[in-house]
Design brief:
alpha+beta, DNA Primase, Chain A, 15 strands, about 35% helix
Length: about 290
């Protein structure tokens, strides 16, 4: 490549979506939010995700080694490539995996997800996804559905957990998204005890670990800590409230807030101490049994 060609290719390549490229290479997020995704580092061995990708800036940072940069820098490190070799490697992805930062006004105008069909789970890809998270098929099928949804002109499928306003939290091996309206999910059984989990896989993990506890309790899945204020009105009516929030700064802060405001709350995060959440512990325990 001539220098001018390298410059042009570099400008195109640095816009390639890091998350999609990592998925192509077999690396998927441990956690993802609107702003960022966390991965187990593709550069080294680790058990807790410390590799961060900014979804708005399309930049990565590995807290374990103190390095970060663009997709080009990442491919150079992962493959031990020169910049020329990295650009050549990324050439085929320059159009299909292009990245564009979502500005606030653009977010309001972006295409909406359309729910096309709701079924019992039967697709092998979704069954395998549940298995990869160590959730038994029977548990997934009991609380979730197989959702076909449309986005722009394409059709996708995912495991879906419905929220109490009729929207869906959607998960598959590659993406985490939701349909409108987005809010918390609620299972009411007239119980005197309430369980609160942060995400749908925390809830499914709890049902896997102790299904009797879940079956004999009312349950709220926040689907985002942003909905914490909305669910506070439910808490006073229960004799006991057990909370299972993430062992990260945001989860700890939310748990502390609830403990300060209500006397009937028990923080159960110590039951998965050393892990980010319940599902991470469930996966670790099952994998250790299989060894």
């Amino acid at each position: 490549m001539e220098n001018t060609e390298i410059t042009k290719s570099w400008e195109k390549a640095r816009n390639i979506c890091i998350v999609k490229t990592l998925a192509k290479l077999g690396h998927f997020p441990s956690r993802i939010s609107e702003k960022e995704a966390w991965f187990l580092s593709p550069l080294r061995s680790e058990t807790q995700a410390s590799f961060n990708v900014s979804l708005h800036k399309n930049l990565w940072y590995d807290f374990g080694i103190g390095k970060g940069g663009s997709i080009i820098d990442l491919i150079m490190l992962m493959k031990s490539f020169s910049i020329k070799e990295a650009l050549e490697y990324l050439k085929s992805d320059m159009e299909s995996f292009s990245f564009s930062s979502i500005k606030p006004e653009g977010r309001l105008k972006r295409a909406k997800i359309r729910i096309l069909d709701i079924e019992f789970i039967y697709l092998q890809g979704l069954i395998d996804y549940l298995k990869s998270r160590n959730i038994p098929f029977e548990i997934g099928r009991k609380y979730c559905r197989q959702i076909w949804y449309g986005f722009k002109t394409k059709r996708f499928f995912a495991i879906g957990l419905q929220n109490h306003l009729g929207g869906w939290e959607l998960r598959n091996k590659y993406f985490k998204t939701s349909s409108s309206p987005k809010t918390f999910s609620l299972f009411e059984r007239g119980a005197k005890q309430l369980l609160i989990t942060e995400g749908m896989f925390d809830f499914l993990s709890l049902a896997t670990i102790d299904e009797d506890l879940v079956q004999n309790s009312d349950c709220i899945i926040l689907n985002s800590l942003a909905f914490l204020e909305r669910i506070k009105m439910f808490i006073p009516k229960y004799e006991k409230v057990l909370i299972y929030l993430d062992n990260d700064p945001a989860g700890k802060k939310a748990a502390g807030s609830l403990l300060n405001q209500f006397e009937n709350i028990t923080d159960c995060s110590n039951s998965y101490s050393g892990y980010v959440d319940l599902n991470e512990k469930l996966k670790a325990e099952k994998s250790s049994i299989l060894k």
